[in-house]
Amino acid sequence: MILGIGVDIVQTQRFKPWLEYSKEQLLRAFSQRELDEIFSGPQDLIIQRMASRYAAKEAFYKALSASLVKLKKTEKTVTFLSTCKAVSIVSGEWEVPEVVVDWNFFKEILGFVLPEFDINLSISHEKEYAVAYVIIAKKG
Question: What sign does the dihedral 41-49-77-101 (CA atoms) show?
Fold first, then answer.
């Protein structure tokens, strides 16, 4: 059963100034593993990788918010920036992007254990735009 859907699109050039950010600034939005992946490989893809991961986090945040509404668990809120710290978008098998979630973070913030979720993520990027789509479904 689908609980939430999220989509986000960003202009990649919005992230060009982020190339000048300190590591500490970048760690507010990305995990170390994400930064390692973003800055590896061809230099011309760094901004696209950064933008696509950011869009994926935003899409996850929207899907999670919709899921919490559907589950009637809206007593406490979670911010997008705190979600960025609890969620990593990483390359999995065959370079398929995966969402890695620190569920203990959400348990502490929300005050309850979320049900087991299936999280599906699709990312696409090109020179000017990056888009991400997330579907959260209840397992089983």
Answer: negative
Contact yes or no for 130/123 (Cβ under 8 A): yes
DSSP 41: S
pTM (predicted TM-score): 0.95
140 residues of the chain, pLDDT tens digit each: 999 999 999 999 999 999 999 999 999 999 999 999 999 978 789 999 999 999 999 999 999 999 999 999 999 989 999 999 999 999 999 989 999 999 999 999 999 999 999 999 999 999 899 999 999 999 87
What distance in Å separates the CA atoms of residue 137 and residue 29, rounded to the nearest whole number? 25
Q: What are the angstrom distances between the C-alpha of 53 and each of 25, 109, 114?
A: 16, 23, 23
Cβ-contact 13, 128 below 8 angstroms? yes
Alpha-helical regions (H) of 1-140: 23-26, 32-38, 46-70, 80-86, 103-110
Q: Which fold has domain 2-138?
A: Ribosomal Protein L22; Chain A (3.90.470)
Q: Half-sphere exposure (CA, 13 Å, Cβ side) for 94? A: 1
